[in-house]
Amino acid sequence: MTKNTISYTSLQLILLLLLRFLIGWHILYEGISKAIIPDWTAAEYLKNSQWILTDFFQWIVSNPSVMSFVDFMNVWGLILIGTGIILGCCFKIAAVSGFVLLLLYYLATPPMIGLAYQVPVEGSNLIVNKTLIEAVVLLLLAVFPTNKFYGLDYFLCKSFNNRKGDGRPGSNK
């Protein structure tokens, strides 16, 4: 099996990086905004769940200690995921974690016919909404190595390889 070498144009890389930064910022800001709101909780959002994971989300809401843990993980998960995506640090882990988190948001309140939510929603959506789009974009970004061109993963890996040398006897590169 041969490995294909793919090179990106400067414009492709810039647009991928821009997309990475924009989504990272959105996720980071969502986390920060939740962190600074006193007594913020996802309970009302989860109470509105009406689809395949309704029983699971209702169980979370009915257990105060679990709800507290979910709120904590939600806020700090968003902050860490957003930071990791922006900085390109543990990028694939951050992007896939963001995908999973956003997919859970989507599954809690999907825009399906016959489902009406008490929590206001943005726009008029059917099946596809911004949450699902952003989740899929995170998955897409996870398979594009933008962190290998610009990000902490690139600089850490480069620094590690420089210290390690190239593996030849007598080489200190």
**Averaged pLDDT:** 83
Question: Helix count?
Answer: 7
Radius of gyration over C-alpha positions, nearest whole angstrom: 20 Å
Percentage of residues in strands: under 5%
Describe this structure in words.
- This protein has helices spanning 10-36, 43-47, 54-62, 64-87, 91-108, 130-143, 152-164.
- With 173 residues, the chain is mainly alpha-helical.
- It has one domain.
- It is globular.
Q: Topology of this protein?
A:
Layout: H1 10-36, H2 43-47, H3 54-62, H4 64-87, H5 91-108, H6 130-143, H7 152-164
Helix pairs in contact: 1-4, 4-5, 5-6
Task: List the main descriptive attributes of the protein structure presented here.
173 residues, mainly alpha, 7 helices, 64% helix
Structure at a glance:
The protein is mainly α. It has helices at 10-36, 43-47, 54-62, 64-87, 91-108, 130-143, 152-164.
